[in-house]
Amino acid sequence: MEIQSKETEALHKEIVDGYKERLGKIEEAKDSEEEQEEPFERSLLHNAIYLHRLWFEQIESSAKDTSSPLLEEILKRRESDLSTFKSWISEFAKASQPNGWAIWGWAHSLKTFVGFPIRGHDDSIPLGVTPLLVIDCWEHAYLFDFKNDFDLYVEAFWQKLDWDVIEKRHHELATLFGYNLK
Question: How buried is residue 135: exposed, middle or buried, by Cβ count under 10 Å (0-12/13-18/19+)?
């Protein structure tokens, strides 16, 4: 099952290109009246571009293996399982639709993994959390291909998610901060 058709992917990337173009214009107009009129737009655009980069990275591969030794180890230590993890993150996805994200990442101050929904691209984002896995819950990501069946969209996500990308993100983060994130 594909997570998005070629048409949806093209639309999605066109939207991201629009974010990049707008951010470029704002960066060029630093200290101008235009930037002062929209002081929070820069953070929204930066987050939108970053979250979409993470999104596309984790679903564009042709990997067939949908298992994750890293996640299995994390869950084992917490006496949980993959089904429970997927349900937990899926609930965050439902909470953040029609225009938001579900995030699972590393909370630096707590030194543990956390999950949460966010609204838009910049509302309710906790500081000090590095996203490892993201689910795009904006309507443009699923409506054309899945209509109103958001649950089917999320199921397609789990089937398409490349855990190697998530594990690579985890490894880079662990290397950067010099400790084991399990």
Answer: buried
Q: For tokens 């960066």, name the residue.
A: 27
Helix 41-59 crosses helix 163-177 at what angle (to 10 degrees)? 120
Residue 100 phi, psi (nearest 5): -170, -160
- Superfamily for 6-177? Iron/manganese superoxide dismutase, C-terminal domain (3.55.40.20)
Question: How many CB atoms are located within 10 Å of the residue 129 CB?
Answer: 19
> Interior CA angle at 150 toward 148 and 153, to 5°?
120
Q: Which two tokens stand for residue 153?
A: 């969209």
Task: Single out the residue of 114, 147, 152 nearest to residue 102, CA to CA.
Answer: 114
The pTM (predicted TM-score) of the whole model is 0.88
Q: State residue 149 phi and psi, 5-degree precision.
A: -90, 75
- Helices 139-146 & 6-28, crossing angle to 10 degrees? 160
CB count in 10 Å sphere of residue 107: 16
Q: What is the pLDDT along the chain (182 residues), one digit of tens a residue?
A: 688 899 999 999 999 999 999 999 888 877 666 555 667 888 899 999 999 999 999 998 766 666 677 777 777 877 788 888 899 999 999 999 999 999 999 898 888 889 999 999 888 888 899 999 999 999 999 999 999 899 999 999 998 999 889 989 988 888 887 766 55
